[in-house]
């Protein structure tokens, strides 16, 4: 029957083809295999599994109980009949499944979180829904989550290195959904999308069996490739192997891409939206008048008493809205700033008590569901083809970006002020027959989060790569490391921001091969004229050996031509080392 070649068996063993055509399992733990060569030999693992199932003995440690998903599938194909035990003879597994009470499955997608580089792509996990559950039961449902087992003592650089190159083990955890809501929606201010999947109860049961098999197993965690979303795809492949979801992501798996693949595969019945605590607070403060916002902030800070004259001029409904917003602000700050419980418990109780004494219904409306989900935005790869002039010299330009989104890309499904780019390279061919690499961004991240009266985050940026620098002697390619921190504020449909930047440059063309620059960066992100754009002004004053300042004013505007196409115009005036140059570039962008 060649069951070792069956897609279901290969999915159960997490096998995939290597670039050399051999089989290899993603599981990196010898405990997952019953054959000595099982990690690279599906046939040997199948034979060892069958022999182990018919071996004498019983109990939770017997292979029939240790690998119930394999057993269930093999029994269906080989018709074991009554010769072997069933799930119900495995006490530990039976008690665990009874605790879960899973009837169906939902895919949960906490959206990107701007203030953490590791969370800017978003995250996915599964929720095990009970039959006919309401909202309260939904919060009590269990979740299946896969994440890196991180050492909290690791610094950010070590964390990034180990996360990129598989230095952390990935682990499966089972937690109540309300704990994940608290973690993502409350602590990290991430809106949550809930995708109800059309898995049958039988498919749900087989998924649970396989989760039992891999719960104690170590998988090496890779931030770009074998991450949370990739492991979720592997679970779905076990119950719907014909979809071959893992095969669509051989090298990287960005959560929004994997969600898009699950939607395209027809697995989704309906989608619900759960706004974060920050989204609710921002929407409710927007609905208040300036006086009501001021009073709500003072109440949350404990600067005025609940019986003060500030509330008396308001109607009962306005008082209700002000008290509710004050409570939401206090709760948000206690979670975001991790304030001691005893510091906020008394004031929270007083605010809730005062609100309960008002019979009027609050006029505050909940946040509207976004018109575009995160999985409905543009795709992460981008190719630009254009032409332009630099210092009166014409050139053709080609640019390719591996991932994911920059400040002037189409905003539908993304957040204004969020940027994360990996492996973004630009090359030009000038009319005087010069072919040049213009820039290579290994990574470039910006988190420009507007401050409000109630939420006041810092904005920041970081970049690493190589770029052309305008010097008296020409435009050499210079390696750089950039970092900046500052503030952002909403203005109309856009935002303004100001950062203090530091730059480290390395090149034989700068003296003495290393230079350091400091200076301000001021920008305006706006929407309009068929798309969105950035007006950016920057100054860098270099302080090693030759002291001089460079800078520039740049307009970068993108006209959206649908979800996967755009037209980009860039105008700039640069000041280099005692020299100036102007730039014009018009490009067509394709997202894929």
Radius of gyration based on Cα positions: 28 Å
**Largest sheet data:** 12 strands, antiparallel, barrel
Question: How would you classify the quaternary structure?
Answer: single chain
Q: What's the helix count?
A: 15
Strand percentage: 25-35%
The averaged pLDDT comes out at 92
Structural class by SSE content: alpha+beta
Widest β-sheet, arrangement of strands: 10-11-12-13-14-15-16-17-18-19-20-21
Give the termini separation. 40 Å
Number of strands: 21
CATH architecture of the largest domain: Beta Barrel
Helix content: 25-40%
Number of domains: 4
Description of the molecule:
- By secondary structure, this protein is of the alpha+beta class.
- The chain has 4 domains: 96 residues, no CATH class; 174 residues, endopeptidase fold (from Nostoc punctiforme); 68 residues, no CATH class; 215 residues, Beta Barrel (Porin), CATH 2.40.160.40.
- The protein contains 15 helices and 21 strands.
- It has a 12-stranded antiparallel β-barrel. Strands 8-6-5-4-3-7-9 form a 7-stranded antiparallel beta sheet. It has a two-stranded antiparallel sheet with strand order 1-2.
- The protein starts with 6 loop residues before the first helix and ends with a strand.
């Amino acid at each position: 029957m060649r069951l070792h070649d069956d897609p279901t068996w290969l999915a159960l063993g997490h096998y995939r083809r290597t670039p050399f055509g051999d089989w290899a399992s993603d599981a990196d733990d010898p405990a997952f295999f019953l054959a000595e060569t099982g990690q690279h030999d599906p046939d040997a693992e199948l034979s060892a599994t069958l022999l182990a199932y018919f071996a004498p003995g019983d109990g939770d440690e017997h292979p029939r109980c240790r690998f119930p998903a394999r057993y269930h599938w093999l029994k269906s194909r080989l018709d074991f009949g009554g010769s072997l035990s069933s799930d119900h003879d495995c006490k530990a597994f039976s008690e665990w499944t009874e605790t879960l009470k899973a009837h169906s499955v939902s895919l949960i997608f906490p959206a990107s979180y701007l203030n953490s580089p590791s969370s800017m792509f978003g995250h996915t996990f599964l929720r095990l829904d009970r039959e006919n559950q309401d909202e309260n039961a939904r919060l009590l449902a269990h979740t299946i989550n896969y994440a890196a087992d991180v050492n909290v003592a690791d610094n950010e650089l070590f964390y990034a290195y180990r996360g990129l190159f598989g230095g952390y083990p990935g682990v499966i955890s089972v937690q109540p959904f309300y704990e994940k809501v608290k973690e993502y929606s409350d602590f990290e201010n991430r809106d949550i999308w809930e995708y109800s999947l059309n898995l049958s109860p039988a498919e749900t049961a087989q998924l649970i069996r396989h989760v039992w098999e891999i719960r104690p197993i170590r998988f090496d965690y890779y931030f770009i490739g074998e991450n949370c979303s990739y492991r979720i795809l592997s679970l779905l492949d076990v119950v719907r192997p014909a979809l071959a979801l893992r095969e669509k992501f051989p090298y990287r798996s960005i959560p929004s891409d994997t969600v898009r693949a699950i939607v395209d595969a027809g697995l989704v019945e309906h989608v619900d939206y759960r706004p974060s605590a920050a989204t609710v607070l921002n929407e409710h403060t927007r609905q208040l008048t300036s006086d009501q916002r001021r009073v709500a902030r003072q109440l949350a800070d404990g600067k005025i008493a609940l019986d003060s004259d500030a509330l008396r001029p308001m109607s009962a409904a306005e008082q209700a809205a002000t008290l509710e917003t004050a409570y939401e602000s206090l709760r948000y700050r206690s979670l975001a700033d991790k304030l001691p419980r005893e510091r906020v418990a008394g004031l929270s109780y007083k605010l809730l008590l005062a609100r309960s004494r008002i019979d009027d219904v609050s006029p505050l409306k909940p946040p509207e569901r976004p018109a575009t989900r995160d999985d409905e935005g543009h795709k992460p790869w981008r190719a630009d083809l254009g032409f332009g002039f630099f210092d009166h010299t014409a050139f053709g330009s080609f640019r390719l970006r591996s991932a994911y989104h920059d400040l002037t890309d189409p905003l539908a499904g993304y957040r204004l002020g969020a940027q994360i780019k990996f492996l973004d390279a630009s090359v030009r061919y000038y009319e005087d027959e010069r072919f040049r690499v213009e820039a290579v961004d290994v990574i470039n991240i910006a988190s420009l989060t507007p401050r409000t009266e109630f939420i006041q985050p810092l904005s920041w940026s970081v970049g690493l790569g190589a770029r052309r620098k305008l010097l008296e002697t020409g435009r050499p390619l210079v390696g750089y490391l950039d970092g900046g921190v500052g503030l952002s504020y909403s203005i109309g449909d856009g935002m303004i921001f100001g950062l203090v930047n530091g730059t480290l440059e390395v090149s034989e063309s700068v003296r003495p091969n290393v230079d350091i620059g400091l200076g301000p960066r001021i920008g305006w992100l706006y929407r309009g004229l068929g798309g969105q754009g950035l007006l950016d002004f920057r100054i860098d004053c270099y302080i090693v050996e030759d002291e001089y300042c460079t800078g520039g004013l740049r307009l970068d505007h993108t006209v959206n031509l649908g979800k996967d196409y755009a037209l980009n115009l860039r105008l700039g005036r640069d000041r280099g080392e005692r020299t100036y140059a102007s730039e014009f570039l018009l490009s067509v962008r394709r997202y894929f």
